């Protein structure tokens, strides 16, 4: 549980830094959508996050049928996806 | 009486490969049969709101609507509110969607089902085949009608300009509903050449996988942002015959890096939703844009306009243009307050109006950064006077009314907007506050 929490915080920091967000990493609601009503990110951000994730965690994000909506459903979902696929 | 000018639905021979779903080829004959099958499922009247993410299903939906004489509505903005607004305003009778969609109209899930052999119908050139949308200064979607003849002429011009051979695999990364994506990945296979790829293709790894799944020669149709991400992740791509970029200015250094990495020329398209693709250039070699065949630019004191084959009237452009010899022009900045982000346009004045209409906001202004025309990652900023609100609350209110690409980053909260001696808002002072880092 501790590792999950710290990865979540790490990913929050990665997002804030990669996207130059005004929000503090700890202010990102881990359950809120990253896109749309939540953080309000867009496709430019999705590519930035994909780039930052590939550099930091050594794997590539992919589109599936639901596009990025499942992985980017929330900070928690993204952290869980990284936890499963990371090679670095 | 002379016959009304018309073009067939597709200029491709029945046995040619028109599209690929993954690695599976779809011939023109099969496409026509599947489109006719879908046409039979459409309501008696249009228009049809086509939101399909799968590029082949989007093409089938467009073709089916054409077969029924119905107009297709194409919105690059996929937010449910915007789609609902467009559907209501244009009286859409159904939506075609391959993903679950909550829309206030009947939704049909298109399927590629083999049906009996179907004819290749002739479509009148003057018939409105599709309507694309942009955001106007009021923030409301502005419709831009596309006669079939204009779409066909554009596809032929693109095929000639980029020398797209029939066997070329076209992998596109832009949604089919974006006019650039629609022209290069749907219309180009129908009337130019090459075989489209159904997708979805968005992330660098998707692009690599899609290219690897199709035979050479391969043409990649993408954006500066995706090129930057591809080069940044260092993914190796299969051999390419060419790269086409549009939606945002392509930095010459990025173009050079891409050409070195992929060993193929990178060419840029200049266009607008209203006019379609109208010029191109080989970015590492040429500053000037070469008009598409048949397209005529008029550059005057008041701005530039373009006459496009198949469109009834000249289209005014949002950029300042200058002739630079040999019939080419260069872009010399924005003429109006229109800004373009993530391939979409909005008016700074319109955004400011939306901002100041928020309850609790006393004053405010949107601002474009100085590098907006060069930096595809650039964001707008806003300075806001709203006692009792913080930046988060302002953003939350804007989020309901403004597309994500145009949300300000940063939001600078002030006690009063800085003004100069004559009371005019000092944009320079706000810019200094917004982009101090």
UniProtKB/TrEMBL annotation, chain A:
Domain of life: Bacteria
Carrier domain: residues covered: 5-86
InterPro entries: ACP-like_sf, PP-bd_ACP
Origin organism lineage: Bacteria, Pseudomonadati, Pseudomonadota, Alphaproteobacteria, Acetobacterales
Name of the molecule in the record: Acyl carrier protein
UniProtKB/TrEMBL annotation, chain B:
GO molecular function annotation: ligase activity
Keyword Repressor: no
InterPro entries xref list: AMP-bd_C_sf, AMP-dep_synth/lig_dom, ANL_N_sf, ATP-dep_AMP-bd_enzyme
Sequence ranges assigned to domain AMP-dependent synthetase/ligase in this UniProt record: 66-293
Pfam families in the record: AMP-binding
Keywords: Ligase
Organism superkingdom: Bacteria
Name of the protein: Acyl-coenzyme A synthetase/AMP-(Fatty) acid ligase
């Amino acid at each position: 549980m501790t590792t999950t929490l710290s990865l979540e915080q790490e990913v929050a920091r990665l997002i804030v830094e990669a996207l130059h967000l005004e929000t503090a990493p700890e202010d990102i609601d881990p359950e809120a959508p990253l896109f749309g009503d939540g953080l309000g990110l867009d496709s430019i951000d999705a590519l930035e996050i994909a780039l930052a994730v590939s550099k930091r965690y050594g794997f590539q994000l992919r589109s599936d049928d639901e596009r990025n909506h499942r992985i980017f459903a929330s900070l928690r979902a993204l952290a869980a996806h990284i936890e499963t696929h990371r090679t670095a | 009486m002379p016959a009304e000018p018309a073009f067939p639905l597709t200029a491709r021979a029945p046995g040619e490969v028109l599209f690929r779903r993954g690695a599976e080829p779809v011939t023109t004959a099969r496409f026509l049969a599947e489109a006719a099958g879908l046409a039979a499922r459409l309501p008696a009247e249009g228009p049809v709101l086509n939101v399909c993410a799968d590029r082949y299903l989007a093409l089938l939906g467009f073709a089916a609507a054409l077969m029924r004489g119905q107009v297709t509505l194409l919105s690059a903005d996929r937010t449910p509110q915007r789609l609902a607004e467009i559907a209501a305003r244009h009286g859409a009778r159904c939506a075609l969607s391959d993903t679950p969609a909550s829309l206030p109209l009947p939704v049909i899930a298109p399927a590629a089902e083999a049906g009996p052999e179907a004819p290749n119908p002739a479509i009148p050139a003057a018939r409105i085949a599709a309507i694309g949308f942009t955001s106007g200064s009021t923030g409301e979607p502005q419709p831009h009608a596309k006669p079939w003849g204009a779409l066909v002429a554009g596809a032929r011009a693109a095929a000639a300009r980029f020398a797209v051979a029939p066997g070329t695999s076209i992998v596109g990364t832009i949604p089919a509903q974006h006019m650039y994506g629609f022209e290069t990945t749907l219309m180009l296979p129908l009337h130019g050449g090459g075989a489209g790829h159904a997708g979805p293709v968005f992330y660098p790894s998707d692009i690599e996988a899609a290219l690897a799944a199709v035979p050479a020669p391969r043409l990649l149709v993408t954006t500066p942002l995706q090129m930057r991400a591809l080069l940044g992740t260092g993914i190796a791509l299969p051999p390419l015959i060419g790269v086409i970029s549009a939606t945002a200015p392509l930095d010459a250094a990025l173009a050079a890096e891409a050409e070195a990495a992929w060993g193929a020329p990178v060419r840029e398209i200049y266009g607008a939703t209203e006019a379609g693709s109208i010029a191109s250039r080989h970015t590492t070699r040429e500053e000037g844009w070469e008009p598409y065949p048949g397209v005529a630019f008029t550059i005057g004191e008041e701005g530039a306009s373009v006459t496009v084959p198949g469109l009834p009237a000249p289209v005014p452009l949002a950029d300042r243009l200058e002739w630079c010899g040999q019939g080419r022009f260069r872009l010399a900045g924005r003429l109006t307050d229109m800004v373009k982000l993530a391939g979409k346009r909005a008016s700074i004045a319109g955004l400011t109006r939306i901002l100041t209409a928020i309850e609790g906001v006393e004053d405010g202004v949107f601002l474009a950064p100085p590098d907006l025309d060069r930096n595809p990652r650039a964001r707008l900023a806003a300075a806001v006077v709203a006692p009792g609100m913080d930046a988060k609350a302002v953003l939350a209110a804007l989020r309901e009314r403004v597309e994500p690409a145009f949300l300000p980053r940063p939001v600078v909260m002030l006690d009063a907007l800085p003004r100069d001696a004559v009371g005019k808002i000092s944009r320079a002072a706000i810019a200094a506050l917004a982009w101090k880092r």
